[in-house]
Amino acid sequence: MLSISHAVTGAFIAVKIGNPVLAFPLIILSHYLEDSIHHWDVGTGISGGTKSSALAFRHELFDLTLAAVLVLIFFPLSSYNLSSLIYSLKEPQIWGALLGILPDLLEAPRNFWKYEPVWLSPINRFHGRFHHSIPQIIPGLAPQVILLTLLWFLR
Ligand SMILES: [Zn+2]
Fold it and tell me: 19: helix, coil or strand?
């Protein structure tokens, strides 16, 4: 799924659960479950050669920016300033969102730059077993719109 979906889901779980020991595995599990739903994301088409890695990377930067904005709209921080940027990593919506996109971040060097350290290969293969993307944008985005709508009302 899009980073938007994974980040907001991770933030949601972290905020609702609070306890990192319980939230961490649930957030990682949510990533794999969401990827198992047929979906469209910015990387769809790279492996089939219908989209270049460079274009997918530019789309991913946009996806990540929107993910950050949406996480902060869903779960605003108590204060915003640059001096507290590092401190905000302690906020559940921030670490939850980062953990929510972690499997995709680990896969990014392989997808965008054809670089995969040996130790990441089994993790990325495991991730790939769950990943079911489809080239149709509207049916691929629909489950993500439904997911985000549900999370908005449940937050
Ligand atoms: Zn993924």
Answer: coil
Distance 118 CA to ligand 1 centre (A): 19
How many degrees, rounded to 5, is the angle at CA 98 between CA 145 and CA 109? 95
Q: How far is the CA of 84 from the centre of ligand 1 (A)?
A: 29
* C-alpha to C-alpha distance for 140 and 67, rounded to whole angstroms: 17
Q: What is the reported pTM?
A: 0.93
Angle at CA of residue 89, ends 55 and 62, nearest 5°: 15
Look up the domain containing 52 and give its range: 3-154
* Inter-residue contact 137 to 45 (CB < 8 Å): no
**Number of folded domains that form the chain:** 1
pLDDT tens by residue, 75-96: 999 887 777 777 888 999 999 9
Query: What distance in angstroms lies between residue 154's CA and the mean position of ligand 1's atoms?
Result: 23
